[in-house]
Amino acid sequence: MKILVVGNGGREHAMARKLAQSPGATVFITTGNAGTDEVATPIPIKPTDVDAIVRFAAAERFDLVAVGPEIPLAAGLADRLVEAGVTVFGPVAAAARLEASKAFSHEIMDAAGVPSARTHTFTDLDAALDHLSTCPVPVVVKADGLAAGKGVVVAMTRDQALDAARSFMADRTMGDAGDMLVIEEFLQGEEASFMCLTDGRTIRPLASARDHKRIFDGDRGPNTGGMGAYSPTPLVGPDNSPELVEKVMRPVIDELARRGIEYRGVLYAGLMMTADGPKVLEFNCRFGDPETQPVLTRFRGDLAATMIATATGRLEEAVFDFDSRVAVCVVAAAPGYPGKVSTGQAISGLRDAASIPDVFIYHAGTSKGPDSMPVVSGGRVLAVTALADDFAAARELAYRAMDRIDFAGIQFRRDIAASVSTHRENTGKP
Question: How many structural domains comprise the chain?
């Protein structure tokens, strides 16, 4: 079985590793990174080059193309592959708008009756500033389009909110993604990541997770693409997962279907567990990053067969489960992240860290230097993930491994999963 993974980050490394364990699988990956060579053959095609990916996948007769990032999905990669007769795991562009446009996402949620924050949408900066001058604070200011997880500012003061609006719309710090602003009510509670597989009819929950978006310990500093994650979260388990499927996921899938859009792939709901019940913060049209690293580390089953069943409308036939142990993932980032980063630093200690039992090191922003040794090539560099019987033990393993890794300017949080209880209540399957 020939499989192509589209993407070259930590999420895609985790996907490629698990797919390579499927019987008879040969895995290829678009460009890859310094760590993916162990499980996949790199091809010299960028993950965003839709035309080249379609030509290559069709010519080489791949049995499955598994798409990691949101950008090619929003650009219609799945549509093009379906037209070319290639089985693809990932939604068509019309469905990927759930992530590509926050305004569209709220339109769907409102029509489907899915609980979420109250929102106002603006295409005019002055109108947005007028609204922000009088609305309650804290308030959340979002660039409508794709911004790699960085187009969100949780403004605790009015000045922060006004600055964020000007930054997105006037200064265009997020490019075209900031042409429209979505201003949301600030929700209080605890966050959870809830991912499901769906073929447009059947919906199957994956293991729950929680990520840490702020750059510094104690949830301080600017938002990032994610500085760590753990799975499962005690907030989502067997007792409330079915309710979340019926109140959050199924209404959205059904509303898209009513509009003639069939959703096949991963649907990710970022939830805030408020005093009034779960409310949706965002939808993503693909596996979360870095949540995928701990979730797929716990995945037990044939991932390739599961993805093919999802892509071909046979998800009810898929057989999979999750390790009863918990997983903690800590991200190492380059100096300057989430702003302008410094790259090119040699990375040491990887082999020593990987020698620790039940530790898995997923490469993200890495490449091979002149001597074939890994060097830093992006903002989020590594995702060090550990499995253990409880969160305290998993944290100890993850940080023991992280402390063996070094590169100039390395930064990582020391509090990933620190607040989660080590008890196992509500942390069973999924």
Answer: 3
Considering 113, 146, 179, which residue would you say is the last residue of a domain?
A: 179
> Do 174 and 262 fall within a single domain?
no
Condensed to tens digits (0 to 9), the pLDDT of residues 216-232 reads 999 999 889 999 999 99
Tell me the CA end-to-end span of the chain in Å, nearest whole number: 28
Its sign, for the CA torsion 288, 389, 418, 333, is negative
Residue 223 is predicted with a pLDDT of 86
% the chain with pLDDT above 90: 91
Quick one: which of 232, 219, 427, 411 has its CA closest to 330? 411
**What token pair was written down for 80?**
């093009």
Say if residue 333 is exposed, middle or buried (CB neighbours under 10 Å; 0-12, 13-18, 19+): buried
Write down the pLDDT at residue 425: 38
Residues in the chain, overall count: 430
Q: CATH number for the domain including 156?
A: 3.30.1490.20
Q: Are residues 269 and 370 in the same domain?
A: yes
pTM of the shown model: 0.93
114 found inside a domain: no
Distance of alpha carbon 73 from alpha carbon 146, whole angstroms: 11
Q: For residues 215 and 349, what is the distance between their CA atoms, to the nearest angstrom? A: 23
17: CATH:
3.40.50.20
